[in-house]
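Reopening this one. Same input as before:
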Amino acid sequence: MKKIFLGLLFITGISCTKKEVVDTIVINANIYTVNDNFDKAEAFAIKDGKIVGVGTTAEIQAKYAATYVNDAKGKTIVPGFIDAHCHFYGLGLQQQKVDLTDTKSFEEVVQRIVDFQKENNAAYITGRGWDQNDWEVKEFPTKDKLDELFPTTPIAITRIDGHALLANQAAIDLAGITVKTPFSGGEILQKNGKLTGIFIDAPMELIEAKIPPSSKKATIEALKDAERICFDLGLTTVDDAGLSRETIALIDSLQQTGKLKMRIYAMVSASDENIDYYAKKGIIKTDRLNVRSFKVYADGALGSRGAAMKKSYSDQHNHFGALVTPLEKLKEYAEKIALTDFQMNTHAIGDSANYVMLKTYKDVLKGKKDRRWRIEHAQIVDMADFNYFENILPSVQPTHATSDMYWAQDRVGAERMKGAYAYKFLLDTYGKIALGTDFPVEKVSPLLTFYAAVARKDLNNFPENGFQMENALTREETLKGMTIWAAYSNFEEQEKGSIEVGKMADFIVLNKNIMEIEAEKIPMITVDETYVGGVKVK
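Same output, byte for byte:
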């Protein structure tokens, strides 16, 4: 009996030594792997920040021994959310400005500015988030009240979409702007021969050029603030749509020293200088930073009637919006970028802007596959132009549909709405679709993205039967759009976007099953834990 016992101990010892030692195993979970077959699993193992095994709890426990065992107790786990189009740095900066989101009148806007200034005594007041479409009087405000209350303090407050701003006279004087100042690519509104203070699209730069730049300390604080907000909501990679070389360099340095853990796909703000610089330097790729795309603006936004339309606006005849970048320059950018390995990602809202860019892409790419050039927003597309998306990747933001649905048809009419916010049409044409939020234009939460894509409703459960439901996405399509397809849009599908062996251990733990819960309860789901490279960041 003693020999048998010793033999059993020996066999047991051998079986234990056969277990591979890893850093973490996650067990007893309801895992949506988002692999090619959309398989489910119960457990996975992590070593050196990557997933080394996926299977049942029994399989993983039999094969691996771990320093830390995370018992999920049946909770749902999905790959970390990827926001395919946002303004990460802008979100952080907004924490340092007057928050004007969800204001219901211009009077409320003014009061928030007054309250902000009492606390901050800023030399130059900036803010963002107002939307005249949410007010009882749905018209652009004027600067008169701001001139009265702040005659010597410059103020520049940006509309929610970032495509219009209101400046007071002090800010206008600082910029040296008069009614005779030349401009292009947008509008400077006047009334009775005087400036109203409203600047739309390109002319905004005249005001913004005189806003004091953020200090390095403030910039770092902004990036850290944005990271905290995003990790809390389950985002593990963000595509920042338009960054300067200086900000990208700072992000890289913070990531290299471990002070910034967010993974960032950086779209460089397009200019001749930036394109030439990065064409020579080449793609920058680390575990946390990927610089291989340029962000270009074709037109403005629908909410400020800056989107470039083929025919005039339905609620403002003889107004067509405008290209904010001249057509020849758009073509020049495309030709230069086509000679590099970089991606071109172009903001296009109106059906004219979408057509111009789709046609330009087709002409320049000459049938080349897998360049993954993107149209950002693809908001209003002529039904005759959807076929162009066969080789062009659509990158859309589902909450735009549920935010704009109250007034979008007034802008463009019933016929053009057939190709508006048409995510299913776009998916069916290209085969994939990348989903994001465009925050801080919209709220940061990916769960609201998921809800808007699937239910096509706002948080008031409106409309009852969903908005243009023929363009709703299934839950599987939506989860893919927020994970593996978003990773694909970044050329990163081999390293993230699903829970598979060899990929980064970026995942989140949800308190409810997002794939089965009643649709109306999706916005109430919370992210209990967020992991980047197997390290808990929330």
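So the earlier flakiness isn't reproducible anymore. For the record, The longest strand covers residues 235-243.
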